[in-house]
Every structure is written in structure tokens, then in C-alpha cells.
Recover the amino acids of this structure.
């Protein structure tokens, strides 16, 4: 599994940025014969911040790209132990669960 690194939370609302990062990330997984990727973003996101949906979009679009390029691959997401904004992490937990495999 490839660590989902090298992306910037400040750019996740930009669809072109996400597409370019995803294309490069999928290619790296193919080049290294890997079967998935894991997101482990631990920074704070406030309720209503557009980056919350941008992060969920990044995960969903990555899952779609990996599924197409590497059938049977998995995209996973690590989240905080509580959905109640622990450490300022107000993620779209339901959206991330729906967008990923685990």
C-alpha cells in the first residue's frame, strides 16, 4: 500500500490539482506494483471549511481512479478516534467512509 502523501490540503478544492495528483499517484502505484493507498491527514479542518469537501472529493476520486487502473485495489482513510472535532478535525466522516474501502 502506498502512503497518500505529497498533496496539499490547501489545494484540494481545485479539481485540476486533484486530477493531476491522482494521476501521478496512481502511476506511482502501478510502477511499484502496489495495490492501494492510505490517507492519513491529521490537520485541523473547521466546520464549513470548503477543504472538508475537497478532502472527501480527493479520497473519492482517488478511489475511482485506483479501481479503474488497479482492479481489486483498496483506498483507506485514517480518522481521529472521535467524530466530535477532536484536535479540530471536523472531517466529513460519513463521506470519507462512503468514498473509501476502510
Amino acid at each position: 500500500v502506498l502512503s497518500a502523501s505529497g498533496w496539499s490540503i490547501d489545494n484540494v478544492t481545485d479539481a485540476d490539482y486533484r486530477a493531476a495528483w491522482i494521476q501521478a499517484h496512481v502511476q506511482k502505484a502501478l510502477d511499484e506494483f502496489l495495490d492501494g493507498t492510505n490517507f492519513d491527514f491529521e490537520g485541523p479542518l473547521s466546520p464549513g471549511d470548503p477543504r472538508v469537501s475537497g478532502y472527501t472529493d480527493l479520497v473519492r476520486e482517488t478511489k475511482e481512479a485506483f479501481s479503474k487502473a488497479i482492479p481489486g485495489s483498496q483506498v483507506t482513510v485514517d480518522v481521529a478516534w472521535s467524530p466530535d472535532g477532536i484536535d479540530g478535525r471536523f472531517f466529513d466522516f460519513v463521506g470519507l467512509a462512503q468514498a473509501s474501502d476502510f
Remarks:
- The first helix runs from residue 15 to 31.
- Strands lie at 2-3, 36-39, 74-77.
